[in-house]
Amino acid sequence: MKILVGILVILTIGFSHPISFVHYKFDPLETEPTIPTELRLEPDALSNYYLIQFTGPVKNVWKNEIIKHGGIIYDYIPHFTFIVSLKNSEVDKLEKLPFVRWIGYYHPAYKISPYIGKMEYKDPARANDPWLNLRVSLFYDADVDKVISQLKDLGAQIEKIACHEEYRIKRIIFDISPEKLNEVAHIKSIKWIEEMPEYTLYNNTTRWVLQTNVSNDTVLWAHGIRGDGQILSVMDTGIDYLSCFFRDPEGDPFGPDHRKIQAHHLYGSAQAYDDHGHGTHVSGTACGNDYTMTYDEYNGMAKNARMVMQDISYGGGNLTPPSPLTTGFQDAMNDGAFAQTNSWGYTSGSQYATESRDIDNFMYNNKYFLVLFAAGNSGPSSSTVHPPATAKDDITVGASCQNPGENNIAGFSSRGPADDGRLEPTVSISGTDANDQCPDQWNPGPNAIYSALNSGTTPTQTCEWVADDWCGTSMATPAACGAAALVRQYYMDGWYPTGSPEPGNAFTPTNDLLKATLINSAVDMGTANIPNND
Known about the structure:
Layout: H1 2-11, E1 19-20, E2 25-26, E3 47-54, H2 60-68, E4 72-77, E5 81-87, H3 91-95, E6 100-105, H4 124-127, E7 132-138, H5 144-153, E8 157-164, E9 169-176, H6 181-185, E10 190-195, E11 200-201, H7 206-211, H8 219-222, E12 231-236, E13 261-266, H9 278-287, E14 306-311, H10 325-334, E15 339-342, E16 344-345, H11 354-365, E17 370-374, E18 395-401, E19 427-432, H12 473-492, H13 511-520
Parallel strand pairs: 12-14, 12-15, 13-14, 15-17, 17-18, 18-19
Antiparallel strand pairs: 1-2, 3-5, 3-6, 4-5, 7-9, 7-10, 8-9, 11-16
Active site: 236 (charge relay system), 278 (charge relay system), 474 (charge relay system)
Keywords: Hydrolase, Protease, Serine protease
């Protein structure tokens, strides 16, 4: 009887899924947001962009009905809402459908990120520039040349056109006077406007903690699950490829015969080496393996896996990731990588940003490619997970302390929820010392995260300094990627479901199965009042 009463109570609560943009959240049947007159849509006579909210979780048959009425469906907006291009004459017909809850205009106000003009930049030139450096996302069927012409008419200086037609991505990056922002929003083919971020790195014992959480028990390695046959990708500041953790003693070039590195990509103005050390460190955590066997205690999580390096640093840790990110994911996948680890992002609230959308777009369309992102180092406050880690399909990684403090979240580790209420991060892994005392990365303490060291600004054949102890969610994320490589080998070698390798049971797991396995193999770190975003 108690169960039935509970169900009745739930059924009487009513609709509790408002339309949720980053800056506007409203139930349209109760009230619409107050929008400045200058940012309201000026309707065309024949057709316009609308928001259509459905009555519940969206079914394909409902979407097909919209298409039958000539609607073109674009992006999803929480909850149960899509942006749709529609002839005005069809609106009344669609409003009468039982599964359509509400139809309203997609106003220019909804297109403008609330973080424009509020971003903080370390680069003095960028911080003091009176103009805005904007990135606009277009509807996938937009005429790019026409939009460029419209932007130029407003005085914009076009910097870059970033398109990936396979994933329906069309973007333009440009500089413009802040006074023209509202006029940009009135360009109908533009669906979203944001300020270009300044990307930053998230650097601020793991092996056995992840495998068994029993001191020095690396049972997966003992059973031969070490990442063999797996290729992962690291998008970071480059790599000291002559370090003993990555060096090919036979001198083979990057490629299928190289001991560690399948491919090496440079993006933007990236240099062909790691002058910062961050990329070498995270690569070592993921899959580093000292071929001299002198420093095996510093080997990475998937020590027998190989890797693709995607260098996005143009010096000093300054980053220029590919735009859109889908192009970088595609490069990694083309080289045989099943996953990409990313220990960088930007501080722009916990919004679902353009890069977050790129991740979900790619993972949805490529079921065997997994993306991991560091949550960020803006804790301990809630809602501090930063883009791109606010994606829905990726694995967002927080930092915990080392043993014996592995059940404690690091103070600096970013917390959830995301702006739209989703729980974050996905998992947490050791990213600082046991006492949550993160040392200065250039004056490291004795108990942070040890991994491969970049010895100098150019590749160096040395193992003289093999352990550079940094801390941060940067250090936790590649460990999670290495763990995913072990899980993937486990399935591909046929260990499931019998617990022994059976060729007849072997299969290649999808990205969502890898994610689910990592989540379900994790240990609850919290208290009874979960979720508490602590």
